[in-house]
Amino acid sequence: MASKLKKIACDVSIDDPISSTSGSDNDLGSEDIDLQFSGRLSFRSSALVRAADSDLSADDEDSDSVAEYRRGPAGGDAARKERTGSVHSLQVGSMANKFVPGRTVFEVVSAKTMKDGSKKFVLYTVAVLRTIKSDTSQATVERRYSDFHKLNCELRKRFPQIMDSIEFPRKTLTGNFKHDFIAERSRAFEVFLATVYKYEEIRLSEEFQDFFYNHDLRIAYRYMSQGDYQEAIPYLQNTLHLQEKMLGLKHPDTARTQCALIVAYTSLEGGEAHVHGYAESAWESIGRDETNPFIIPLLQILIGCRWRLQQDKRDLENRLSRYVKQGMTGPIDMPTLEDLVMQCLSHL
């Protein structure tokens, strides 16, 4: 017998859903949100998918003040404006769809009105979530309208047939700093990113990767070229966080960033635990790829880590012996992991 759609009437109360999240790093304290939701929920298979399409509402604000808008993780329309000097805060939108398995979700979680000299602009914080296993962590980037507009133009130039049917929010001359306008534009950016992300050729394109993390990789490369590995690490970590959610753990680019972190932590005192962790993860990602250029130096590093930790390394040594052959004059001269990483990053 086919199952019937069941509707369950219930009341839901959510108190401070952001600051109560275990282990999350955010800038909201317990006093920053006072959200309550009650109503009737219909549970059906596509409910969470359509949750992202719920309407947004917001209060108007004096455009002469500095504004900050935050998007909370609870469902339904919820807004609370709080004044601290000239700063305003607003909670809008729904993040219920982050619990749908197997999807990468783009959320504009906050938007700040900034000043650059006499000019004002809105800086949007885009969070990327991987919904497998109820991922509650966020990898974020901050972008303004001009960055989104540049991405749109580049993608339309390179992928005209795909982009022909994809909408992008137009520029406006007035009302750019109103709550409702920013909330509406935030939703439009989310839809735009989610739509173009579906196409593998766009997802793997240089233009799309430039928008999210290639800039951080270039900064990391510059620091590493100067020998300042400590400064490079935050940029590499943010890149890795984004790549894990957008490309997956097994993608070669993700493994490349893990190898870059291995190189950076190798140069730091007390970085052994990080080196071992990233080396094991990178090996899990590319260990079956016989053509990956990082295979041999990664094996050498991982064997050293396991030896120092008195862990079994025989399988790795057997694997390494298949690649490295001893000549009569000694071992073959091969590039180090740092050589390969720096070569790869130099081409970005």
Strand content: 5-15%
Which structural category do the helix and sheet elements fall into?
Answer: alpha+beta
Question: Tell me about the biggest sheet?
Answer: 5 strands, mixed
Please report the number of helical segments: 12
What would you report as the Rg, rounded to the nearest angstrom? 24 Å
The end-to-end span amounts to 57 Å
Runs in which pLDDT lies below 50 for 5 or more consecutive residues are 3-67, 72-101, 326-331
Shape: elongated
Strands of the widest sheet, in order across it, are 4-1-5-6-7
How many strand units?
9
Short description:
This protein is of the alpha+beta class and 348 residues long. It is 42% helix and 14% strand. The longest helix has 20 residues, at 206-225.
Write structural notes for this entry.
- This protein is α+β, with helices and mostly antiparallel strands and 348 residues long.
- 42% of the residues lie in helices and 14% in strands.
- The chain has twelve helices and nine strands.
- The strands form three sheets. The chain has a five-stranded mixed β-sheet. The chain has a two-stranded antiparallel ribbon with strand order 2-3. It has a two-stranded antiparallel ribbon with strand order 8-9.
- Helix 8 (252-266) packs antiparallel against helix 9 (272-286), helix 8 (252-266) packs across helix 12 (337-345) and helix 10 runs antiparallel to helix 11.
- The longest helix has 20 residues, at 206-225.
- It is elongated.
- The termini are far apart.
- The model is unreliable at 3-67, 72-101 and 326-331 (pLDDT under 50).
